[in-house]
Q: What sequence folds into this?
C-alpha cells in the first residue's frame, strides 16, 4: 500500500458512489470519510479536518453550493473537487467564487478523478 | 404555437496564453506575442477538457449543418473563420474544436461587438503587464481588472444575446462557447431551453479566470 497521509471526505447522497470512491481510494492509502448530506458533511469536516473534499451538488437538505459556503466560513483552505451530474452557468460561477479546485461532471472516468485527487494532494504537499 | 428552441451552452476556461492570443487576434498583429505562464500540466488539463467537450458535442446528435457556433471573443468582422483558423494553428484547443465542427458542416457566427472586445483587451493587457510585479501589486491589478471587467461583461452579454437571437436561422441549434464569468444564460432563458455541456473545469490548473 502507498504511504499516504491525505484525508478525503466524500459528501454525496449516492451511497453506491461513496462506496466506489472508498474502494478505489483506500487501496491507494487515503483515509476516507463519507457523508450522505450537506449537514453531516459540515460536521465531519469540522471533526476530521480532511485535506480534500469530493462534493456532490444535488443533495437532499442543503445543496452542495450551500454546503460549501458554510464549510468555507470556517475552513477557507480545504481543497474541494465538485463531482456532479448537475450543472449550469450560475452554479459554475458560484463554484469558482468559492475557490473550488476542479469541477467535474458525472459520469466520470475513474482514472481522471484519481489523477485529479493526486494532483490536488500534491499541491498540498501530502501525496506519498 | 410558440416553440421554445433548444440551445447548447458550453462554459469554458481559457489559459492566460489563450486569452492573450484570442484578444491579440483582434488587432491582427502577428508580431506581438501574448504572455505565457502556461505549464505542461495546465496544457494537459485544458486538452482533456476540450477532448471531453468534443465527445459530448458528438453525443448530442445535433446534425452539424444545423449547428451555428457562437464563440466568446469572436468579433463580428466578416473574417471569423480566418480568426478561428489562425488561433487553431496557434494551438488554441477551443478553436481547433471549432475548425473540426466547421469541417463537418457547422457554421460560425461573429458573436461579439469588436469595440467592446478592444476594451476587454486593454483591460486584460493592464493586468498581464503586472504579472512580474509583487504579489500584492498583481492582486490589486486583478481586483481592478475584475471591477472594470464586470461592467464590460454586462455590455458584452447584452450584445451576444441579441446577436444570437437575430442571426439564428429556422431549424438551427445554437452552440455557445462562453467563458465561465459570462452571465449570458440570464438573457437567454426566456427564449431558449438551455442544455449544458460540462466535462471538467480545472479551475486551479488554469489559475486566474479571465473574461475571455
A:
Amino acid at each position: 500500500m502507498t504511504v499516504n497521509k491525505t484525508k478525503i471526505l466524500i459528501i454525496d447522497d449516492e451511497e453506491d458512489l461513496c462506496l466506489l470512491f472508498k474502494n478505489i481510494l483506500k487501496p491507494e492509502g487515503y483515509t476516507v470519510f463519507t457523508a450522505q448530506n450537506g449537514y453531516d458533511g459540515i460536521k465531519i469536516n469540522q471533526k476530521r479536518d480532511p485535506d480534500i473534499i469530493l462534493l456532490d451538488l444535488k443533495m437532499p437538505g442543503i445543496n452542495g453550493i450551500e454546503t460549501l459556503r458554510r464549510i468555507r466560513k470556517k475552513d477557507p483552505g480545504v481543497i474541494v473537487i465538485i463531482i456532479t451530474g448537475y450543472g449550469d452557468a450560475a452554479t459554475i460561477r458560484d463554484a469558482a467564487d468559492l475557490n473550488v479546485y476542479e469541477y467535474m461532471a458525472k459520469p466520470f472516468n475513474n482514472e481522471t478523478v484519481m489523477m485529479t485527487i493526486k494532483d490536488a494532494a500534491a499541491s498540498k504537499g501530502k501525496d506519498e | 404555437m410558440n416553440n421554445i428552441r433548444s440551445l447548447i451552452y458550453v462554459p469554458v476556461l481559457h489559459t492566460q496564453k489563450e486569452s492573450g492570443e484570442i484578444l491579440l487576434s483582434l488587432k491582427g498583429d502577428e508580431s506581438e506575442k501574448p504572455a505565457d505562464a502556461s505549464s505542461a500540466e495546465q496544457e494537459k488539463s485544458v486538452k482533456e477538457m476540450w477532448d471531453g467537450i468534443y465527445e459530448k458535442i458528438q453525443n448530442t446528435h445535433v446534425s452539424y449543418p444545423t449547428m451555428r457556433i457562437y464563440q466568446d471573443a469572436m468579433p463580428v468582422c466578416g473574417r471569423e473563420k480566418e480568426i478561428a483558423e489562425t488561433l487553431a494553428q496557434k494551438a488554441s484547443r477551443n478553436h481547433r474544436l471549432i475548425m473540426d465542427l466547421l469541417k463537418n458542416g457547422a457554421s460560425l457566427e461573429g458573436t461579439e461587438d469588436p469595440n467592446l472586445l478592444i476594451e476587454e483587451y486593454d483591460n486584460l493587457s493592464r493586468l498581464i503587464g503586472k504579472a512580474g510585479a509583487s504579489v500584492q501589486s498583481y492582486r490589486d491589478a486583478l481586483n481592478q481588472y475584475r471591477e472594470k471587467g464586470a461592467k464590460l461583461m454586462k455590455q458584452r452579454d447584452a450584445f451576444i444575446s441579441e446577436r444570437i437571437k437575430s442571426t439564428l436561422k429556422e431549424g438551427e441549434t445554437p452552440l455557445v462557447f462562453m467563458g465561465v464569468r459570462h452571465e449570458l444564460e440570464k438573457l437567454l432563458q426566456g427564449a431558449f431551453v438551455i442544455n449544458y455541456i460540462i466535462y471538467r473545469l480545472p479551475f486551479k490548473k488554469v489559475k486566474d479566470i479571465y473574461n475571455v
In short: DSSP finds eight helices and six strands in chain B. Chain B touches chain A through 22 residues (CB under 8 Å). Chain B has one domain: 5-206.
